[in-house]
Amino acid sequence: MTFQTALCRHARPSYPPAVAVENGARGAHALPDRGIYEESPVLCNPPIFDILMNAMEFQIEKNSPVPAIKQIQEQIKLSIAMGMLKRGDVLPPIREVEKQTGINRGQIHRAYLAMRKSGLLSPAPGKGTLVAVSAAAPDSINHQCQELSRDIIRRIRRIGVSPIAFSRYLSRTTQEDERRNPFIAYVDPDKEIALRRGEQVSRSWHASVAGLSVAEFKLALHRGGKLRKVLVNHLIADSIRRLPRRKRIDIVPIEICYTEQTIKALEKIRASSVLVLLPKHALSSARFIVEQLHKWMKCKDADISWMPVDEVADFGHLLKDSRYDHILVTPGARSKVPVKFHRNPRMLLLQMELDSEDLEIARIRAGVIV
Q: What is the pTM for the complete model shown?
């Protein structure tokens, strides 16, 4: 059963509710920018690429160490990234995929379900499963990748090297190159946060993602670096987009949410007056932060105020201030608080993490597919 394209184009993806973001928060119903993606060049695995280009069918390598579920998911993701599947296209029914591949329908269902949870697919009663995202301007990328892949294979065979062996060599070489000249970076006003998020994304994607402060990002732009994909906290995406003037850099926003541990700690707070410490660049989002805190705290009528962490002259004196029952520190303000106060019972260091669903969307947009 081939993929069915150009069908049901009007279906809209269902998005998860917006969540709190690092150094700030968003309104409860704001939606991330998941619509039309800018071009995302990828290094294609030649065999899978040819399969997708020529037959548009699922091809399962039964002797591969990669589970069948993952193979199905990656073929769909690659098809989306390369523009062969667009938002609104209908995927083959599970029974047809089972008949075509010989894979148990339960595994196929789990593959589809996982991609629905990540926001890449959406259900459509009476129609089946639809693609929920698109990649913009993919046609030239498809053609270039196809031609490049075939040319490389011809030349490698000509010099007597196994194409599979060369693909591993090329993978190692490109990883070394990306460490020297990053293709993807996570950018944040706080260097510590940028490094931590870059490492987290690198582990999740099995790819090299640098962590840069905004100042370092500006310097990289000035020096003419090779960055093409920049991951950012959704809250600061607009301000970061204004920096790379006339440069082909895709700014990819990612949702940030409170960790489960932080949510449990917020639920336990019983206070009538709370102070939130913020970095200067997050002050414009203070109202959103308060809305999110009220959402998780049991004491809904608590008076929550905020101030820039840079204005705190003496943290010891602040903790003794009877006006505040509890002091909350956002991740961007944490580095300004002396370590000796981190475990004070009246102070809570808010911890945040990348939203797993948004991270999967960002992975495709950044061109990290196979």
A: 0.66
